[in-house]
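TL;DR need structure tokens for one chain.
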Amino acid sequence: MTVFQIGDKVETLDDVISGKVIKVSGSTVTMETTDGFSLNFESNELVRIDTGDIKVSNYEISQIKAEKELPKKRRAQVMKPKERNAPKMEVDLHIHQLTKSNKGMSNHEMLNLQLDTARRQLDFAVRKRIQKVVFIHGVGEGILKEELYYLFRRYENVKYYDADYQKYGLGATEVYIYQNA
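>> reply
TL;DR here they are.
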């Protein structure tokens, strides 16, 4: 059983009523609410609330200030062992990256240029034993993405999935190439 003293800040357990203890008589506690009403409660219906006052010495304040003034050590970005051994290759398949001007090109010709570039880059990665290739295709209507997936399915040693969303958004596919020993 909690013993209350005059001046304690309290709240009721069942209602949203808070205030200050103004009288204690046995197990009955009289509380003055924040609205100025005097209400009687049994001591088991109340709970003491923290006043929120935090006492800190000048010594503790000076310690914290000194700690804050120290220059912060910068953390070097640590790469995972797998990432260190597997350089990642990026291939941007946006049409403006592949040709100086796409004037006069039909959609079919642009798509074929993009797919030929993807095929050449994937073959290059296989030959050079590069494990990961990210193909940046953009979001668009998804035609290039579907054609890329069709191309990737023709390779036996390839697994493909959406690339890192934080870095590329929805417009990129990462290809993992299994290397034979």
